[in-house]
Amino acid sequence: MKMVFRWFGEDNDSVTIPQIKQIPGVEGLVWALHDIPAGDVWPLERMQEIKQAGERAGFHLEVVESVNIHESIKLGNADRDVYIDNYIQTIRHLAMVGVKVICYNFMPVFDWIRTNLHGRLPDGSTALFYEKTKVDNIDPMELVDMIAGNPDYTMPGWEPERLGILKELFAAYQTVSADDLRGNLRYFLERVIPVCEEHDVKLAIHPDDPPWEVFGLPRIVTSKEDLLQIVDLVDSRYHGITLCSGALGVNPSNHLVEIIHELQDRIHFAHIRNIRLFDNGDFIETSHLTKDGSLPIDQIVRALYDIDYQGYVRPDHGRHIWEEECRPGYGLYDRALGVMYLQGLWDANQLNSERSR
Predict the structure, then answer these.
(1) Of the listed 317, 326, 333, 334, which one is catalytic?
(2) Distance between CA 99 and CA 194 in Å, rounded?
(3) 97, CA 20 to 30 Å: which among 114, 122, 245, 321?
(4) Active site residue 206
(5) How far apart, in whole angstroms, are the C-alpha atoms of residue 288 and residue 175?
(6) Looking at 70, 93, 271, 288, which residue is catalytic?
(7) Active site residue 130
(8) Using CA atoms, how far apart are residues 338 and 272, in angstroms rounded to an integer?
């Protein structure tokens, strides 16, 4: 297990590289060029600057999250090859700066959905909160105003260029079925995976968040069955998944330990977070501690240990604690606590294994 930490850049993050350096066990930064519109080629010069900043602190930059997919690719539009060619060039550039894994998603329009960026927890901290009834009845533009109206930081997945044509996108997806979306993913993968194989860069698709249909938009990465179907689209070890405990785990039918064992050869990246599920379909993110949420975080880490997972892991969304002012879900303090908890679980499994020999 290689511990990494998501960082949004010097001018786009309340967390600094020197602060991350003080978290024991973190080996690398998970990064992206968040200001580059989906579909554009990422400039090599910008990548080299970030690589140098990370390496000065002793970090690798082997994981990128995310290189966003242009909506024309998801929709299967006539101009999709233009954007796929740009994606391929970005892959080549990323390989030149040492990137080994690209996390991406294939969710129409929205990358993730929450209704409250600062839901209150019993201990007084706040966290990202999803209220099912509100989503079922809200106008999507109200969510846009709430999530994208953050004046301090970019909100990945809620980029202005995408949201500016929201009505047009909703209209375009009216005629796109889940099978259509899956077929468009296959077309994309058949073009880019040979390039990934050539440059030793793996693609890791992220599950839909949340893993069910929202606003009538198709979803194709919601369950073990979906994931198995997706990895079969292209037969290559360079085509894999990002195992996200929070995105998959909010559906109680998704058994995460089972998914880890069944898809172990295709897990290139893992996001681990805990969430508290409510009977009415709401959920809120919690500390990473197993007892604080509804997910078996201890069993998830044990499953990764049992398959001898050698890939990258990062603590996922954290609470906002100790009066920290930060990007929602991505402060320093609670994610640092998450790193230590996850590493403690891993060390305990390793110690028990050594004692049983």
Answers:
(1) 317
(2) 16
(3) 245
(4) yes
(5) 40
(6) 271
(7) no
(8) 9
Alpha-helical runs (H) found in the chain: 17-21, 44-56, 71-75, 80-96, 132-137, 140-147, 160-163, 166-173, 178-199, 224-231, 245-249, 256-262, 297-306, 333-355
Active-site choice (238, 330, 333, 341): 330
Please determine, for residue 165, whether its predicted confidence score (pLDDT) is greater than 80: no
The one catalytic residue in 13, 111, 209, 316 is 316
Of these residues, 70, 206, 239, 268, which one is catalytic?
206
- Give per-residue pLDDT as tens, 58-93: 999 999 999 999 999 999 999 999 999 999 999 999
Pick the catalytic residue from 244, 282, 292, 305: 244
Whether residue 151 has pLDDT greater than 60? no
Following DSSP, what letter does each residue of 170-190 receive, concatenated?
A: HHHHTT--HHHHHHHHHHHHH
Q: Is-contact 155 146, C-beta < 8 A? A: no
Q: 331, 321, 311: which is closest to 126 by C-alpha?
A: 321
Contact 248, 256 (CB under 8 A): yes
- Residue 306 bears catalytic tag: no
pTM over 0.90, yes/no = yes
Instruction: Check if 93 is active-site.
Output: no
